[in-house]
Amino acid sequence: MEDELYMLAGTAASHADEVRQTHSICCKLREVIETIWISLNLEERGGFVTQSKA
User: Fold this and answer.
1) Contact 24, 30 (CB under 8 A)
2) Residue 42, Cβ neighbours under 10 Å: how many?
3) DSSP-assigned letters across all residues of 16-38
4) What span, in angstroms and rounded, lies between the C-alpha atoms of 35 and 27?
């Protein structure tokens, strides 16, 4: 029984790590999409982007 609990805890921790990594990737992707979206909107209005997000 104790071994099963340790195994379940390990599995849960592994899934939590995967979720954190996926969340991080999604946040970075969102930033890229927002930057492109802003650039496209400014380009349509005749402006340009002078700042880039790090």
Assistant:
1) no
2) 13
3) HHHHHHHHHHHHHHHHHHHHHHH
4) 12
Mean pLDDT for the chain overall: 86
The answer, as to whether pTM is greater than 0.70, is: no
Whether 50 has a pLDDT exceeding 70, the answer reads no
Q: Per residue in 19-42, pLDDT tens?
A: 999 999 999 999 999 999 988 887
- Cβ pair 10, 2 in contact under 8 A: no
Phi, psi of 3 (to 5 degrees): -65, -40
Residue 18 structure tokens: 């995967």
C-alpha torsion sign, points 32, 33, 37, 38: negative
